[in-house]
């Protein structure tokens, strides 16, 4: 074939990248790879190994050590020994280490890219042009955070020893996402790479050692699922950071419950790709290519659900199918291909089964008529159109190169369809009307939204999801907090004892007239409500004198309160100024009744008048604090290295359950409820179990303070029983629980059902009078999700 013929046909010939250096590196390790522990490669204590395979050919690539309990113990011990010294290094010293790692990645970029393509099966163009440069960017970016840690995070300290488990779809990039911030901020790391794709992690260990990273700061233990489970369950690990499937994330949440471990979960997704009729259709078609056929669709935030406005649906699908025919599937090292190999035969089988199921449920199948390489695990670009919203292919993550498409008529319907999922990781919106695009972006339940773009990532911009896509953020300032803990909480001690429930005793010679009705009702939907079970409990003073009764809330009362909170969704969309005004008004009305509340606290708890007055004064001040924050806790503008910006927008989580601490009955209640409603959440609160009357008195303050019905709901009763109901409730988006260690364990375990965010104290006592420990940004950060909206600009 002549050169002229290529110009006539505009066809591609093979352009393979050389793999000589990569194969030589593998040959040097022909006897197998060990774990990287305390700065050296060591075999498994058990001697066990397993093989890793090349997805494009099915051939064995290397032999890896299979980590067991002894290996994990050794890695954790090395990390624990190194962590204190690493954290004591000046920020500048740690910054220089991270800078050296970034430069090492750049110097060996081609080798890393080739090894990654061979090991994972993805195209060399992606590893060379995206994965490796972005990994280096993460180390550069976080070197900067190390440099300025002392000033920017002065009130925080490192979490400690961090266990990190990464997936097989972006092995090297995921390593950088996790290792860079952890090391930068003074933590030590034990990394467990995916069993399918461990090679670039081991290559990085060699490079880190050559770059002079201190022994023990970074440890890598290879193995299968059981190795990861050993890491999760290890008692001497302070944090687990996991990226992977929702099913495994749910198990990790259950197994870490009550351990006190910090937890970050970045899980699955079924991300909507919304195309309006005024979109640049050709641009949107290219967006689909990047959204679902990038990395063979093996992307947690892949735009796998196409939502196309009816008026352009036929034209859009016609152009999309035409574009699909031009995609090329081939060997990963061919620089002219668009898609490489599926990671493993087991994943290929799953993709095939789900597509078959989608067709059986009525979807129309279109697959590009292109030749697939022989051998290995390959699958063609696939489109399923006419999909129903309830079809399995519309609800389940396929994790392959399969787009499913459905139509909508109005923006409201598009939002409803987009949010019709248990996931909430990412979304794309395509429209030439920026007002429409931003309005829709703000209403999508997703941690990341791209406008007229897709799959944009940067170290400066937080990434993470909500709902069953997990919690926590990676990247940027918000990601740094995941590897830090507040100084003010470091010295917290376990509660010496829980305040006992006082029993009412008959008082001889008491001829005082009885109160007409001493039973405080529940407060649901802005109204006082009798408990469903019509049971109540007596609240007595420390001396046994009955001072009131409260309703005994049950499952139906919680259900009613959650429904009322959901109906108050307008509060989340209220202006911050309006929320601030109402909080000031609540404080003002509480101030007018300060003596009454102080007397109530004294009667319930036996506190001195001075201490009771101090608690009421602190509660009023705290309301003022969150009124002040309501219109000042704002987002930021990230400036990634592209023509555009990313808006980091703090959003209300939604409906939040609150189990108030047994102590400080008024101040504890306000310290937890106020930051939540200041940021637009709606609350179902369970007051202090032994001392609930301060909260039931407080709802009369709320009734006269213009707070919309349903924003704050109060259900009295057993903290542990009501927490159990809230934790298992799928319409509760987060749960804050302060009390016993048993309460924290139960809340974290049951929250795995819908992976709601939790905020617990693990039975540790908080000094509610201490502003450093009990108010401000520590609580506001936990009261919001940060949504990053990417807005490219220019032609």
Automatic annotation (TrEMBL):
The active site is at residue 266. The keyword Oxidoreductase applies. InterPro entries: Ald_DH/histidinol_DH (IPR016161), Ald_DH_C (IPR016163), Ald_DH_CS_GLU (IPR029510), Ald_DH_N (IPR016162), Aldehyde_DH (IPR011408), Aldehyde_DH_dom (IPR015590). The keyword Lipoprotein does not apply. Keywords: Oxidoreductase. Pfam families: Aldedh. Residues 41-487, 537-761 form the Aldehyde dehydrogenase domain. It comes from the Bacteria. Gene3D superfamilies: Aldehyde Dehydrogenase, Chain A, domain 1, Aldehyde Dehydrogenase, Chain A, domain 2. PROSITE patterns: ALDEHYDE_DEHYDR_GLU (PS00687). Belongs to the aldehyde dehydrogenase family. This is Aldehyde dehydrogenase family protein. The lineage of its organism: Bacteria, Pseudomonadati, Pseudomonadota, Alphaproteobacteria, Hyphomicrobiales.
């Amino acid at each position: 074939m002549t050169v002229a013929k290529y110009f006539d046909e505009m066809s591609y010939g093979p352009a393979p990248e050389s793999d000589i250096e990569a194969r030589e590196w593998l040959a040097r390790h022909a006897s197998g790879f060990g774990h990287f522990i305390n700065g050296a490669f060591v075999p498994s204590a058990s001697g066990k190994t397993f093989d890793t395979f090349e997805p494009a050919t099915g051939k064995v690539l290397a032999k890896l050590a299979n980590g067991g309990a002894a290996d994990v113990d050794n890695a954790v011990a090395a990390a624990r020994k190194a962590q204190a010294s690493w954290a004591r290094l000046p920020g500048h010293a740690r910054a220089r280490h991270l800078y050296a790692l970034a430069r090492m990645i750049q110097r060996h970029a081609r080798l890393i890219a080739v090894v990654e393509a061979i090991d994972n099966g993805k195209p060399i163009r992606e590893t060379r042009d995206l994965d490796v440069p972005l990994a280096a960017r993460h180390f550069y970016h976080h070197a900067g955070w190390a440099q300025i840690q002392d000033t920017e995070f002065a009130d925080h300290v490192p979490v400690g020893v961090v266990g990190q488990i990464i997936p097989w779809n972006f092995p090297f990039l995921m390593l950088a996402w996790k290792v860079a911030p952890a090391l930068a901020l003074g933590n030590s790391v034990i990394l467990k790479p995916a069993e399918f794709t461990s090679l670039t992690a081991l290559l990085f260990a060699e490079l880190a050692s050559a770059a002079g990273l201190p022994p023990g700061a970074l440890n890598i233990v290879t193995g299968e699922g059981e190795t990861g489970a050993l890491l999760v369950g290890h008692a001497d690990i302070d944090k687990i950071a996991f990226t992977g499937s929702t099913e495994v994330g749910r198990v990790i949440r259950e197994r870490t419950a009550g351990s006190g471990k910090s937890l970050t979960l970045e899980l699955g997704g079924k991300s909507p790709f919304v195309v309006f009729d005024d979109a640049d259709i050709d641009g949107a078609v290219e967006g689909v290519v990047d959204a679902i056929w990038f990395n063979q669709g093996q992307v947690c935030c892949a735009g796998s659900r196409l939502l196309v406005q009816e008026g352009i649906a036929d034209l859009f699908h016609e152009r999309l199918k035409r574009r699909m025919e031009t995609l090329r599937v081939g060997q990963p090292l061919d620089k002219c291909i668009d898609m490489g190999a599926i990671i493993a035969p087991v994943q290929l089988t799953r993709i095939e089964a789900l597509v078959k199921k989608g067709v059986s449920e009525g979807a129309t199948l279109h697959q590009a008529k292109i030749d697939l390489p022989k051998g290995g695990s390959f699958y063609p670009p696939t489109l399923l159109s006419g999909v129903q919203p309830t079809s399995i292919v519309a609800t389940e993550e396929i994790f392959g190169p399969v787009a499913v498409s459905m139509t909508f008529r109005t923006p409201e319907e598009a939002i409803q369809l987009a949010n019709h999922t248990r996931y909430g990781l990412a979304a794309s919106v395509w429209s030439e009307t920026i007002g429409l695009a931003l309005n829709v972006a703000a209403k999508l339940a997703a941690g990341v939204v791209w406008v007229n773009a897709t799959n944009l990532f940067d170290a400066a911009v937080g990434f993470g999801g909500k709902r069953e896509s997990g919690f926590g953020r990676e990247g940027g300032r918000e990601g740094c907090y995941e590897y830090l803990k507040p100084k003010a909480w470091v010295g917290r001690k376990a509660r010496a004892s829980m305040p006992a429930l006082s029993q009412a005793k008959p008082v001889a010679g008491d001829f005082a007239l009885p109160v007409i009705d001493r039973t405080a009702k529940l407060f649901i939907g802005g109204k006082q409500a009798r408990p469903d079970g019509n049971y109540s409990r007596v609240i007595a003073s420390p001396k046994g004198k009955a001072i009131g009764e409260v309703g005994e809330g049950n499952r139906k009362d919680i259900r009613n309160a959650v429904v009322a909170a959901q109906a108050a969704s307008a509060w989340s969309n209220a202006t911050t100024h309006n929320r601030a005004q109402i909080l000031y008004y609540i404080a003002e009305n509480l101030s007018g009744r300060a003596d009454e509340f102080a007397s109530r606290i004294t009667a319930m708890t036996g506190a001195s008048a001075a201490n009771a007055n101090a608690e009421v004064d602190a509660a009023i001040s705290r309301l003022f604090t969150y009124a002040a924050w309501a219109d000042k806790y704002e987002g930021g503008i990230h400036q990634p290295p592209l023509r555009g910006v990313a808006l980091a927008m703090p959003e209300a989580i939604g409906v939040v359950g609150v189990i108030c601490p047994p102590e400080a009955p008024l101040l504890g209640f306000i310290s937890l409820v106020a930051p939540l409603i200041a940021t637009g959440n709606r609350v179902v609160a369970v007051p202090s179990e032994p001392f609930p009357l301060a909260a039931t008195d407080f709802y009369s303050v709320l009734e006269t303070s213009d707070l919309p019905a349903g924003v704050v709901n109060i259900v009295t009763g057993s903290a542990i029983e009501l927490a159990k109901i809230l934790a298992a409730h799928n319409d509760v988006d987060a749960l804050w629980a302060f009390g016993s260690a048993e309460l924290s364990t139960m809340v974290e375990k049951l929250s795995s059902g819908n992976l709601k965010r939790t905020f617990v104290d693990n039975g540790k006592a908080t000094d509610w009078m201490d502003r450093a420990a009990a108010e401000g940004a520590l609580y506001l950060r936990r009261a919001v999700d940060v949504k990053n909206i990417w807005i490219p600009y220019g032609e």
